[in-house]
Amino acid sequence: MRVALLGPTTVVAEDGTPVDIGGARVRMLLARLALDPGRPVPTATLIDDLWGEQPPADAANALQSLVSRLRKVCPDVTLEPGGYRLGIAPDNVDVFQFDRLRAAGRPAEALALWRGDALADVREAPFAQVAATRLDEARVAAEEDRFRTGELDVAALTAMHEKHPLRERLAGLLMRALCQQGRQSDALHVYEQVRGRLADELGVDPSAELQQIHVAALRGELGPRPVVDRLPVRLTSFVGRDAELAEIAGLLAQARLVTLVGPGGAGKTRLATEAAARHPLHGKGRVWFAALAGVRAAEDLAGAVLGAFELRVGGDPLRRASEGMDRIAEVLGAGESLLVLDNCEHLISSAAEFTTELLRRVPNLRVLATSREPLAIDGESLYPVGPLSVPNGQADVSGFGAVRLFLDRASAVKPGFLLDESTVDDVRQICRGLDGMPLALELAAARLRSMTVRQITQRLDDRFRLLTSGSRTALPRQRTLRAVVEWSWDLLTEEELRLARRISVFPAGADLAAIEQVCVEDSLYVLTSLVEKSIVDVIELDAEPRYRMLETIRVYAAEQLEASGEQQEIVGRFRRYYRELTEKWEPLNRTARQLEAIAVYEAEQDNIAAALRGAIDDRDVDLAAALLGGVFWYWLLKGDNERAQVAVRDLLALGGQLPDDVHASFRAMQLIMAAMPGLPATEEAAQVIEDCVNTGATQKWPPLAIALPMLAFLSQNPELARREVKRAAASEDAWARAAADWALSFILVDEGEFDLAEEARDRAYEQFIAVGDRWGSAMTLGMKATFISHTGDNRAAIELFERGLAVALELRSQDDAVQQRWRLAVEYARLGDHAAAERETIEAERYVQAIGNDQMSIMIDYAKAEVLLRAGRLAEARELSDRFKRRATTSAVLHSFVTEWSAMLESRLAVAEGNPAEAEARIAIAVGTTSDRSDMPDLATVTELLAQVRFAEGRRDSAARLLALAKRIRGRLDLGDPDVRMLVAELGEPEPVQLTKAETVREIRAEAGISD
User: Fold this and answer.
1) Pairwise CA distance, residues 943 & 970, whole Å
2) DSSP structure class, residue 448
3) What is the per-residue pLDDT across 802-846, written as a single tens digit (0 to 9) for each?
4) CA angle 868, 871, 876 (to 5 degrees)
5) Where in the numbering of this chain does the OmpR/PhoB-type domain appear (predicted)?
6) Whose CA, among 42, 611, 900, 942, lies 20 to 30 Å from 91?
7) What gap in Å lies between CA 786 and CA 940, rounded to an integer?
8) What is the distance between the alpha carbons of residues 680 and 720, in angstroms, rounded to a whole number?
9) How many Cα atoms are found within 13 Å in the side-chain-facing hemisphere of 121?
């Protein structure tokens, strides 16, 4: 049992369980007995100490009753001839533990026992005042002891001095602390205050000790002590690692050995130096730095450390090591110490033995080591040092650690260098291309003396020739990027070298199965050794370890692979591996295992792309076609259209070497990716579709079941579109049959058969759900939501958009997720729930920032502007509209749609601002672009907007006619738009228009002032 009195009275049982003592008088009895642990306290003494001058009538019985109550929780209370005794050892009472630690010169540990005022809850007892006064005095003395042996804290000493103004020892400590800060006048003022108080209140002079401190202060003998800085000179600013410094400081506070591990060039030495410079022991001159990079033999290690102490050991070489350790332990053992051991990797075993022995012999020592692999000894805390943070598509890159470091070093060699529109893309590319590695970034920045930032970017592929301008005063291995990597490479065994150079074929890293199949069988133990030596990185991906190299190490390893003569064999294995992998997983992209397949592709897509690019470059037609066929649908699912378009273009460039069915399939995909209503030409699309049918491609690749009907539909060939829908509907593939109904719904909508279109969408949705294709179900939900919104049921549309968004997020399809969120925000605004609409745009912004897609953020600006416009916040909407137009003009994603979208947004703003003439001019632009590409749904929307403009001008007949034309184009009005509903309420339901669609389009163009 343990009793605590330095605060409220508490008892803890032997197993650590708190004990409920009971009432106040019982606590008083326990506290009194605990002040004499293991010794009997006479009954009379206890009665006096508990009740004082007013004991109860039957004091003995009252005491016995208290003892009985106490025994229920503390059985160790016994009655002996000399009185009542609490049978516990003194060290089990915190008061006596405090006294013991203080006497042993460990005031900090003693003070840590205090939890408040001593005897805080029993001070009413007659015995408590005397005991509490003694303990309070001892506590203050311990505080003084701690400051005497530790760091002098002016703030803490001032607070204590104000509470105890007559304590001369405390005043002396405060005076010393103030003098060390250069505040001599404040120190002398403290002395005068104490001298006056002593004279006024006690009638005495200050003690001889305090007078001596006063004289020393007058003479300036207590001024600031110069800090002994034994760390390497820091000539450049420290940038980009603030969080790491805080974490290392926390580790050093808890562990006696902290090792910074990481690859060469990661900045381990500079980080360790900065951490040591900020450590409290540095201000006391108790930090040493031992550079081990130049040490070649294990027996010279102790000598290198002694060199850091500016000591030498001569004599017999056999005795030198042991004598050196004695001298090192003697210096470090003189007080708390921190020793930095820099670059241990090439002496790893000897460094581990040396550090173990040193920590054993010097209990108050902490060691901060840097190495490319752990020391692997008991008590070691590892801190991995990786690259600085790098941007990933974000517009604002200034806060990333890699960018901050590059800019800092760049401005040093090229004053005036700034991060602006002319440099930001190159700086981003440099930081990403060099993995955010500090040394590489510094070497790149040094090149600005003689190159432009664009020239540096263009030469990153030749990084080992480029990055050779390091500091002349740096170690040889840190002057060039190649030397940094070679230093690590030379430490590898033959087995490790073979595996390391072969792993370079994986640009995106690989799991163990891939490495063993492509590189070396049964390679786990060698692989883990490469991880330990910071040649290979390991990351956890869905609980499966994945191994990768930093790009600089991978480039060097690839050079070694080429020099070894193994390159052709290993690259061949690599490409065949990914052909087999994509052949396995491609069909599963359209099944219930879709998420599992996407996870595989997410991890492997850069490897697949590298295998595909290599096969195309080598004109290996069969392999290239298989790889593209294996990854193409995944790229479309994820919205990676640009990568897909480039790969298809390059494959088709192989021309006649491609099998006819492959050429037809990818030509169809090329057309559909670039398609919009009216494009491509009807004849060209029809020919490609016939080629797919005649070569048997439609039987081999299910994605054609959706591509060919839609290609025919968009090229305005409804008969051919119907034929291809019928072909897909007869397929043995369930996914193809779902795709057929999905495409059919487009055709039916265009024909005005809305009920049949809804039935086709429902069938498509049910079939996509049945096969497990989330992408198909999400696309169908989005279509259903749009058409339900047109009926005026905004809430039902919102529910469908939310379901589509959930599926898109599950698929991690960035484009679909942003578009679903955008549509959801606009639908809330159309409903009139402006708070929900704003919430959805905020969530969309957060999502776009998280994925680092600035192109998508431009689209969010458009959605936000529309939401603000519908909420009546016109000034904010106008500002966002201008920003959208400015940013979208340079967008590779929006390109041709910028003019159209801006025109529609500006037209709506002009109507809301009461400027219909401006609105008329702007909307004519959108009428022209939508009609030129025969996009009937978009043209209907623009026509409804033109009707609103005419109504705002007071031209009711023209507005009514335009509503009728919009209904003819789409087949229905967009009654989910409150502005359209208002027009219908004012003008009535429009009469049917007896015109063909072509005639209707011509009339709309004429209304907008566009001549054919």
Assistant:
1) 10
2) G
3) 999 999 888 887 778 888 888 999 999 999 999 999 999 999 888
4) 35
5) 1-88
6) 42
7) 14
8) 14
9) 18
E strands, 549-645, in order: none
How far apart CA 2 and CA 88 sit, in angstroms, is 8
- Following DSSP, what letter does each residue of 818-864 receive, concatenated? HHHHHHHHHHHHHHT-HHHHHHHHHHHHHHHHHHT-HHHHHHHHHHH
Count CB atoms within 10 A of the CB of residue 223.
15
The CA distance from 698 to 702, in Å, is 7
> What are the boundaries of each domain within the chain?
2-144, 162-219, 242-384, 401-472, 659-771, 898-1011
> How far apart are alpha carbons 894 and 589 in whole angstroms?
28
Across 310-356, the runs of DSSP E, i.e. the strands, are 337-342
**Contacts (Cβ under 8 Å, ≥6 apart) of 22:** 69, 70, 72, 73
Q: From 610, 626, 702, select the one nearest 659 (Cα to Cα).
A: 626
Question: Can you say whether residue 577 is alpha, beta or left, with left for phi > 0 and alpha for psi between -120 and 50 degrees?
Answer: alpha
Token reading at 128: 């408590």
- pLDDT tens track for 641-693: 888 999 999 999 998 889 999 999 999 999 998 876 556 788 999 999 999 99
Strand-pair category, 365-371 with 257-261: parallel
Of 165, 170, 173, whose CA–CA distance to 200 is shortest? Answer: 165
Output the CA–CA distances (angstroms, integers) from residue 536 to 259, 433, 485, 546, 912, in the order listed. Answer: 18, 17, 12, 10, 60
Cis peptide before 677 (omega within 30 of 0): no
**CA 894, chain centre distance (Å):** 29
**Is the pLDDT assigned to residue 322 strictly greater than 80?**
no
Record the tokens describing residue 298, joined without a space: 């294990």
Share of the chain above pLDDT 90, in %: 42
* Widest distance between CA atoms in the chain: 123
Please answer whether residues 538 and 545 qualify as being in contact, where contact means their C-beta atoms are separated by less than 8 angstroms.
Answer: yes
Summarised one tens digit per residue, pLDDT across range 420-462 is 878 888 888 888 888 788 878 888 888 888 788 898 888 888 7
Q: Sorting pLDDT into bands at 50, 70 and 90, what band is 710? A: very high
pTM over the 0.85 mark: no
Contact 271, 342 (CB under 8 A): no
Q: What is the pLDDT of residues 835-862, one digit of tens each?
A: 999 999 999 888 887 776 667 788 888 8
Q: Which of 898, 891, 841 lies closest to 864 in space, CA to CA?
A: 841
* pLDDT over 60 (residue 93): yes
Q: Report the helix count and the strand count for the chain, using DSSP H and E.
A: 48, 12
Tell me, what's the pLDDT at 319?
Answer: 43
Q: Kind of pairing, strands 18-19 and 10-12? A: antiparallel
CA torsion through residues 260, 263, 264, 265, sign: negative
Tokens at residue 383, please? 């801190």
Contact 651, 658 (CB under 8 A): yes
Alpha helices by DSSP H, 618-652: 621-638, 641-652
Domains 2-144 and 242-384 share a fold: no
Beta strand 380-384 pairing with 365-371? unpaired
CATH number of 898-1011: 1.25.40
pLDDT of residue 478: 47
Q: Which two tokens stand for residue 1008?
A: 């907008």
Question: What is the rounded distance in angstroms from the CA atom of residue 815 to the CA atom of residue 743?
Answer: 21
Residues linked to residue 539 through DSSP beta bridges, in sequence order: 546
- For the segment(s) 659-771, the CATH number from 2.60.40, 1.10.3470, 1.25.40, 1.10.30 is 1.25.40
Q: What is the CATH number of domain 2-144?
A: 1.10.10.10
Q: Which of 1.10.10.10, 3.40.50.300, 3.40.309.10, 1.10.287.110 would CATH assign to domain 242-384?
A: 3.40.50.300
Q: Which two tokens stand for residue 485?
A: 């990597």
State residue 472's pLDDT score: 45
pLDDT for 55: 86
Q: 474 pLDDT exceeds 70?
A: no
**What does the DSSP 8-state code read for residue 39?**
S
